Amino acid sequence: MHLRNFEVKRTLGVGAFGSVKLVKAHDKTFDKDATNGYYALKCISKELVEESGLTSHVLNEKAVMSQLDHPFIVRFVSAIQDSQNIYFLLESLLGGGLC
Questions:
Q1: Is the pTM of this model over 0.90?
Q2: CA 48 to CA 84: how far, in whole Å?
Q3: Is 17 helix (H, G, I), strand (E, B) or coil?
Q4: Which one of 6, 31, 55, 72 has the fewest beta carbons within 10 angstroms of its own beta carbon?
Q5: Phi, psi of 17, deg, nearest 5
Q6: Whether 4 contacts 32, CB under 8 Å
Q7: CA-to-CA distance for 5 and 20, rounded, in angstroms?
């Protein structure tokens, strides 16, 4: 899986270490679930995480998210990385925030 498989549609939110973007998969066969090819792509800056000393937290987040399977928790699909960022591909839940 590569970033080039996805088209960025818009930014959903911004946080301390990066942003979350709405993306659509180019390949229709990639989407095996009911997301219609849309996903949330959490983009995490490697530099900011390393500067903060929170590398183990990000690795822990990936480990926990990849093992969870619950209807009330966003589904982790995959992790991708490049030289600047770590990306978590997640199911898109476009109903708004809980706040």
A1: no
A2: 10
A3: coil
A4: 72
A5: -110, 0
A6: no
A7: 17
